[in-house]
Amino acid sequence: MTTAPTARKGAVGTARIRVEGRDKVTGAARYAAEVPFAGLAHGWLVSSTVARGRIRSLETDAVLALPGVLTVLHHGNAPRVDTGYIGLLGVPPDPTCAVFQHDRVPSMGWPVALVVAETPEQAREAAEALVVHYEEEPYDIAFSGERPDAYPLDGHMPAVVEKGDLEAGLAASAVVVDAEYTTPEEHHNPMEPHAATARWDGGRLEVVDSNQGTTWVASELASLFSLDPASVRVRSEHVGGGFGSKGLRAHQVAAVMAATALRRPVRVVLTRRQMFSLAGYRSPTAQRVRLGADADGRLRALEHRSLSLTSTVYEFIEPSAATARVMYDADAHHTANRVVRLDVPTPSWMRAPGEAPGSFALEAALDELAEKCGIDPIELRVRNEPERGPVSGLPFSGRHLLACFREGARRFGWADRDPRPGVRRDGRWLLGTGTAAASFPVMARPSTAAVTAEADGTFTVRISAADIGTGARTALTQVAADALETGPDRVRVRIGDSDFGPAMIAGGSMGTRSWAWAITAAAAALRERLAPGTDVPPQGITVRSDTTAAVDALPPKERHSFGAQFAEVAVDAGTGEVRVRRMLGVFAAGRIVNPLTARNQFVGGMTWGISMALHEEAVRDRASGGHYGADLAGYHVATHADVPHIEADWIDDPAPDPDDPVGINGIGEIGVVGAAAAVANAVWHATGVRHRSLPIRPDRVIRAGTSTGERHA
Ligand code: MOS
């Protein structure tokens, strides 16, 4: 027997702790608000206390006389900025970020002034003392599925896609599900609040920030302030969570204005409460799903209509109806994303924007269809597995949904499930299990990277990537090591600095994929330069890459990750308590770079799903237009006691697409997709009652009771 030569064992695919892990646990890693600056001044934002109206006047004189106060910026004295541009991500800036440009107040919590003082305490005291007089106007914050002023909005995909005759398809169907689902306003709540420090340094604007993309924020600031892009530098070394909320926000712009006015560094940090108004959020949704199927469960007609809200100053759409365009085919297939403008802050991207609420409605409706047809929910999905993109007609680069269900069903013990609802008990608890499908698009955006061969035999990678807690820095170290055919200990990856050149943001689950592509390209070019015997000079040899042409050359296909979610719940119909007992997610997401950090991402997303199903809900007070309990006491997120045994794993999906040179899909968002539906479907299986409004709160469970009429005594 001959032995093949031992191949170098690659770093990709091996579990590695975070390269910056020691720095983080010892406190050596500095977050944006912790970076020291000489002569630092502190800004505190003042938020409107009315939901709509005009600022009549601000009593700034009294505040300027307070100890330590340096200035008060507001619409009467702040510099004008330019909002007439389209940003790097292809959208205009949200005017909420272009602070202090006019006297109008379009929502509660709108930034009306910045008080700058020597210390944060002085700034806060003065900000709270600032009296602002408003001319109040009536406001409208009433979101519901019945809004006559709703209209279709495209966003980054068409709002309305219609194929075939929907009403005819429904009429010809043996079984019809017609149901409305709602999800509430939800907030990102990253652990680290938004924070930025701005200063002018030798003619350059430097901003130390916590964000999901330094070149993105730098280019937005350059556009707003009409600066040469080369004269703006944004750094963001460590980020304590983002989830879509950390792009350009009011605090960076306010900090730049103040640093410019005072000619000294100014830091602005958002409070947790301010984040509820100034950091974006997930819009509530009202969704209607109509499914028509033959008796064997094959879909003839599918309709998914979703309504979300946006502010009066900016159009943002939560495209919840779009997942159906990928998941299930039907001769008649209608999907529509609509929006209504209300007197509220602008919503924004939040982990799986569209897919998270959309998959709740669609996957719960599929479960209702399975019940009506008397078919196992997994078998229903098997019967509706499309050959090609249901709407696009494009081939899938790989579609491993059923493989995820097969593996998940085996591990979860699905075969033993009694399909009847409301028949299992464990003392006071009714038990149930549920499942749902997940998918998330696999996309990439052009990025640049530089790789340097150092004279000491090590390598330095520079890319303006962002590690928002995901482990991206570690994953990129592994990718670079393999591309350079060296060990990860010989590679240092530097990220979070816009001076490293344009690169994709940490968003859309396409960060690691896009950055890995650029790093691999630069590493390959560098290895060609380093022919054996090449002398590396003291400054090293640097090669740069730009993947614009390669990314643009990807042939159009349906590219998605897939997953199967399973949940077991226990419901006490008397107290209304719902406890998730266990959860399993099995995913197909291309090459998994680092099993340790990847599992964190999947489990984190699934935990969000539990939280979405059972806990999270921001409620607006109709009497003020603002939130009740805009803090982590009033806004409930799943905490340790709510999160049981969660298992996340993946099936082998090593080469998702022959013409895809990276093979890495995104994993940051798919974990939340379908997770809330799996929990809700399990609650139905436990109680026999469908809960179509999230969160499934104890009061809702008590009011709904069970199919056997069990209620609190
Ligand atoms: Mo994410 S919502 O793509 O940051």
Structure write-up:
The chain has about 725 residues and is an alpha+beta fold. It has a domain of about 120 residues: Aldehyde Oxidoreductase, domain 4. It is about 25% helix and about 25% strand. The protein is built from 17 helices and 25 strands. Strands 3-5-1-13-10-11-12 form a 7-stranded mixed beta sheet, sandwiched between helices. Strands 7, 8, 9, 14, 15 and 16 form a 6-stranded mixed beta sheet that branches. α9 packs parallel to α16 and α12 packs parallel to α13. The longest helix is centred in the C-terminal third of the chain and has 20 residues. It is globular. About 55% of the residues are buried. The N terminus is likely disordered. Dioxothiomolybdenum(VI) ion binds next to loops. This is Xanthine dehydrogenase family protein molybdopterin-binding subunit. InterPro entries: Ald_Oxase/Xan_DH_a/b, Ald_Oxase/Xan_DH_a/b_sf, Ald_Oxase/xanthine_DH-like, AldOxase/xan_DH_MoCoBD1, AldOxase/xan_DH_MoCoBD2, AldOxase/xan_DH_Mopterin-bd_sf. Keywords: Molybdenum, Oxidoreductase. One of its GO terms (molecular function) is iron ion binding. It comes from Streptomyces telluris.
